[in-house]
Hints:
By secondary structure, the protein is mostly helical. It has one domain (3-277). The protein is built from 14 helices and no strands. Helix 4 crosses helix 10 (171-192). The protein is globular, with a radius of gyration of 19 Å. The termini are far apart.
Amino acid sequence: MNPKLALVIGIICISFSPILVKTADAAPIVCAFYRIFFAWILLLPYCLYKRNLKMACKDIILALIGGLIFASDIAVWNISIKMISATVSTLLANLAPVWVGLLSYLLFGKRSGWLFWVGTAIAVSGMVILVGYANLIHLQLNMGIIYALISSLLYSIYILITKNILKRIDTIPFMFYNMLAAGIYLFVITQIMGKDLFHYNPITWVSLISMGIVCQLVGWITINYAISHLESTKVSITLLSQTVVTGILAMLMLGETLAVKEVIGSVVVLVGIAITFLKPRRASIL
């Protein structure tokens, strides 16, 4: 498959996730569990047939730990989606690259270029517009926004932990162990919280199954395929279009609309995030 086509397919697939969470009459943690469960169940026969699950012990541990963090990320993001618009929640979840740069600097002393800091400042400015200056001053933040920010922070931690593992191993076995840990973790949480896993209407079941097949399995297999063939920076910037696609789907399928400040703030945040991916050109030597 053409890597660019795979990337387009992947973005469209993952853009449906907030829409499906909204339409599912199930708790956010249940939506997260079934997204992982159905994807893993469908991946299992392929992995057993190919017998390609052999990995170094270190890589398996990293994949399992990554799965726990990824599961937490999805669960928190689903909570956010249930509380605020799908578009705004998706936008804030895409702040992960900003967190990655900040954490890399604070924890590992890795210096980022000036474009990263400019982009971060712009993204934060967009968030101020989005949330509202007065609300920030009085700490009157919508909990949905806070959950979305926590989700983006969790995903940035996931990126830092697993960023090098796919350079050593294939995507499929990584996803197998990653989703295995995520599924078990989410199942335990649903049982602790006493959530019902079975009694749902047909529309909800369609949404839950679609999350697993469309968003998790097809979406991330195609995106990981694109990442392995295309420049990572370009892929990362292109992935920001998920917010736009989700916004369009939310208008068409959910009837969502955004206030003027939300539109302006969203555009500013997207511009800021995109700038963080850019690298300054080296001056040519004459």
